[in-house]
Amino acid sequence: MKTVKRIIAVLLLTLTVLVVGYLVYTGSRLTESQGNTQTEVVYEQTQNI
Amino acid sequence: MNKRRIFNIALTVVSTALFVLWGVFMFRSSYLRVFESLGDLLQSAKFYFCEIFGIEHNITATVSGYSGVLQWETLLPKDFETFQETATDYVTLLGNPDNFKSWGVSTASKIGNGAKVIAILLPCLLVFIFAVKKIYESGNTKHNKDTVPLKVFKAVMNVTYKPVKKTVLGYVAFLKEHSWIWICWLILWAFSLNLASIAIEFLAYYLYFAVSYRFETLYIQFVKLVIDLQVVFGKFPWWLIGLAAYPLFNRFRQRIATGKLRHNEAKNCGFINELPIVSITCGSMGKKKTTAITDMTLSQEVMFRQKALAILQKTDMKFPYFPWICFEMELRKCMEYGTVYNLATVKEWVQIKRQRFMRHHNAKLQLYGYDYKRYGHNYDDALKVSSLFEVLETYALAYFIYVIQSSLIVANFSIRTDNKLIDEGNFPNWALDFFPKKQRKSRFAHILDFDVLRLGKKVLENNPKAGSFEFGVVAITEIGKERGNNLELREVKKKNEDTNQKNDLFNSWLKMCRHSATVDNYPFIKVFTDEQRPESWGADARDLCDVINIASASDQKLALPFYTIEEMISEWAFNWFINLYSDFRFRRGDNTLLVYVLKGVTAWLWRRNIRVYNKYGYSTLKIEKERGTMDGKIEKKRYYLANRKIYSHRFSTDCFSDYFNDMARKTKVGLNDYIEYASEKATIDELKMQNSYFINGLYKDADGDSA
Questions:
Q1: Is A7 part of a structural domain of the chain?
Q2: Closest alpha carbon to B67 in B252, B166, B201
Q3: Who contacts B537 (Cβ-Cβ below 8 Å, separation ≥6)?
Q4: B52, B130, B183, B254 - which has most CB atoms within 10 Å?
């Protein structure tokens, strides 16, 4: 029982780190893509002017 | 002023100056934000009062808008519509396989970097282990001699670590002594880290929202909170935030653990309340019988104090304008002078007061100025009418039980209690918590003189204590050995001259003990006993009890959450080191650097783990409860034993050990002096040495036959 509890605890910790990592990574990708879109909009507006 | 004090003051001044400079140069925006928040608060307050009193105004609550000081870009969009769009994009991106693959590649790259580090370190570690094994292979018997590396290490530590540790500990003690210093620092850092602005903004928004109910502004507040928190999360590395957050996390889980232990204690109290006045706890040796009755005794003592307080509070309401404080003070004085020392004398004292009042009708003297003509002197509870002095008697009895500053436990073994009466000259409070943060002063149970429980003959003729016992918690371990059962007492006669179990009327006391202990219809008496088998105690007494059979005791459990990995590390470290250490102890007698360091680290981990288990560990007893008549109807229950409560020097499991010690001390032999068998088969002489009834009987018969 003790061993099972420990295995579950380690797996849960690893899973939490991976999930949080994935959420943060996706968030950073979204910011990057938004940044790129904004840059493109500014570029197009400059071109139009 | 000594040098240490000068150093501490200088360090405080330098640290404060550094903190101020740090705040000015690194967190300037936080202070500007505080001023902005105060402006928001002022506007919100104006807005609030104008709206509350219906005054026309054109005040704009600036708290509903964004900050002009902190305009950092966050992940969150500025308005809720864009947030919804971005959230949709985010969720879509979360489910995007390309994004997942990309994350996988990024993670694999990071793990790869870690693997490279391990690949470099692993051979070094192997070489190190190999070298250490080679060095430690050769044994010696240089007892307690330090090796040269250890001597060097200790010398270096003496001039580095030790003075630093001493200084730090001294400074921490200095800060604890002058708490205003760290409180000032805390306030300074609350301003620097923008926490003060968050609190002020919350108050400002509360005033605004309480009268405007503009839910659409909630999102802006959330974004502002994230922006405000960026001061903390944006300027410090993640590991430093983690280190600072660990004590908070620890405190959070400790509160959960203490809450769980208190909940278990409440369940135990429920179990004890269901028991009749007398109970017997049974179980084979090592089933924690005495532990269980000690635990119940401790809880019952606390419950008696709490019940006495509840009676006091209810009695107070019967005559709400009576000056109870004066009545209490006079009773306490009588207790101090020794005129009142038990419940009977309390009743007598109130009776005398009543007689004096009836004689003189002097309310100022006897009722402390209570205007009985205005506020009344009778209390009608729709069942009966009680006079003021009847209510006063109940109050005085309950107050006596509540305030008496000795243990309420009377036992035939010692039990430590640490309840503390906190008194500032008014109504005293008891600190009755079993899980306090600080250790409290101890006191011990009263010695049980069995004569006080005998209504008939006494062991000590004219025992001055006889008849004095009125209320309290009685704990008797091994009751069967004291009282015996019908079979054992077959030869004992009631008419005997000597005091015995049949003529001491102990059982009559058991049946009637509640009469002396009842206050406001509640019996302040409970008797907890234990024995291996319920049948060991005579049926006349046992039939009064509930029999609590301890079926099993669980392994140690931990109320502290999120501790599994820490416990695993501690256990692994201990097991690994003990193997190494045992081998080392066998081979060598000297002290080496490696063992010195490893032992220090392992001992620290081990001690921490033990402390955690002692503070937050508990075990569960599976209990089968049945009536003393033992009619076979069994109720299954659970009882919780918290380590912090029951194993903190509460009682001694070997409470009768001194009897055996005394016997053993008088003999001149020990285990080592017992003769060993010469081979795997005992000789006749060896058999005869056993002084066994069986063997002696065999040889007596054999000798008789031959004769």
A1: no
A2: B201
A3: B280, B479, B480, B483, B484, B485, B529, B531
A4: B254
C-beta atoms of A5 and B75 within 8 A: no
Is residue A49 situated within a structural domain?
no
Q: Give the CA distances from residue B401 to residues B136, B155, B445, B587, B589, in Å, rounded to whole numbers and listed in that order.
A: 67, 61, 16, 64, 61
Measure the CA dihedral B200/B201/B203/B204, to 10°.
120
Please give the structure tokens belonging to residue B678: 């010469």
Position B65 scores a pLDDT of 87
What does the mean pLDDT of chain B come to?
A: 92
Question: pLDDT at position A42, please?
Answer: 57
Residue A3 domain-assigned (yes or no): no
| pLDDT over 90, % of chain B | 75
DSSP assigned state of B160: T
pLDDT in tens, B454-467: 999 999 988 899 98
B558-615 pLDDT tens trace: 999 999 999 999 999 999 999 999 999 999 999 999 999 999 999 999 999 999 999 9
Cβ-nearest to A26 among B94, B107, B565: B94
Structural domain including A37 reads 20-44
Spans of all domains in chain B: 1-70+178-239, 80-137
Instruction: List, for residues B264-286, the tens digit of each pLDDT value.
Output: 999 999 999 999 999 999 998 88
Instruction: Please name the residues in contact with B307: beta carbons below 8 A apart, sequence gap of 6 or more.
Output: B522, B524
**Out of B99, B107, B565, closest to residue A26 by CB:** B99
Residue B396, CB half-sphere, CA atoms under 13 Å: how many?
Answer: 28
Length of chain B: 707
Return the H-helix or E-strand segment holding B707: none
CB < 8 Å to B564, chain A: 5-6, 9
| Interchain CB distance below 8 Å, A6 and B565 | yes
- Are the C-beta atoms of B398 and B424 separated by less than 8 Å? no
Of B322-336, B487-501, B677-691, the least confident: B487-501
- Whole-number Å distance between alpha carbons of B391 and B357: 15
pLDDT tens digits, one per residue of B28-80: 889 999 999 999 999 999 999 999 999 998 888 899 888 888 876 666 788 88
- The B residues from 528 to 567 touching A (CB cutoff 8 Å) are 564-565
Closest CA to B194 of B244, B233, B228, B222: B228
Count up the domains in chain A and report the number. 1
Q: B300 φ, ψ to 5°?
A: -65, -40
Q: Is residue A26 situated within a structural domain?
A: yes
